[in-house]
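hey can u run this one w/ manganese (II) ion bound, need the structure tokens asap thx
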Amino acid sequence: MTSEALSADALYILGDLFEYWIGDDDRSPFNLHIASIIRSVSRYIPVFFIHGNRDFAVGQAFAAEAGFTILPEQSIIDLYGKRVLISHGDELCTRDLEYMKFRKKSRGWWWPRLILATPLSFRKKMAQRGRETSKKNKGNLSEEIMDVTKSEVDKVMMDKNVDLFIHGHTHRPNVHEFLIDNTKVKRIVLGDWYTQGSVLVATANALSLEVRHFAPA
Ligand SMILES: [Mn+2]
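ok here u go:
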């Protein structure tokens, strides 16, 4: 990963790098290890990070430690001369009404401040409980609620005036080619990193969605 990343021009991490994030003051060995790996890459190339729904609380202190720049949740980047929209993708799953409600609250100004004012041990317990609830709820939601809302994708791509959109979140790695107003557009979905890696390698001439197998432990 590191040597490959070093031959790139930039690295974009599109959120949910962590299963949960309860505050930059959670200086667990694991978090510090990840910070040091990303930092070693960031000495050579710029590294960007977009919040996911699980790690939206990653803050400037951790960003500084890991050497990455936090981008807004929907960002337009210049990919070798092409205007491209990148995001985590959870904002597109608008049919999951409960989650949308939580998303609005948790990204507001008061909720994160209130949570971060509580002791770290309390936040750890809360995160644990949150993950259990989330697992239970997911079992009840239908597949189509968990995927992006098609009309929302069209709307966002039209609003941002892009013909390429790259995101993750849904665990449905794929390249979707479709039409918006008779214009050919593309949506590339990155996969999860539970049992393998999933990356989009972008060069000036090609986009390649690739699986990366983890080295045996
Ligand atoms: Mn996600």
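The longest helix spans residues 120-140. anyway lmk if its weird
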